[in-house]
Fold this protein.
Amino acid sequence: MREIRDDVARWFETGSDVALAQVTKTWGSSPRVPGSVMAVSDRGGIAGSVSGGCVEGSVIQAALDCLEGRQGASLERFHASTARAQEVGLSCGGNIEVLVGRYDRALFETECAELDAERSYVRLSLVEGPEGMEGGV
């Protein structure tokens, strides 16, 4: 969160909408751990990383689709053995799941207050059922 904070604050101050992508699960080799985040603004700004580069483009597109209303929150899955993972360059041999959804400004401000107070906090992200895969960040 600390690595994206300044960019996200600036985007919200200028009236941008923001999506947050959060690594929820990894298996095998993975450059980023669960909890790693990347933020994307509706104006194309990018801060943070969920994979060190190999799946960023696909996740950024999912974030922009979410912000433009083409899809709601989504759980993006990249498994090294699938064609999709090979298309986006997941060559590390690992698997990664990333939850992508609209980032609520009030939640962002609450997280910043916790950081300022040097308190630990937990962001709980929920994903419901395999059908209609709805989620929240």
Notes: Residues 66 and 81 are 26 Å apart (CA to CA). The two ends are 13 Å apart (CA to CA). The chain has a mean pLDDT of 84.
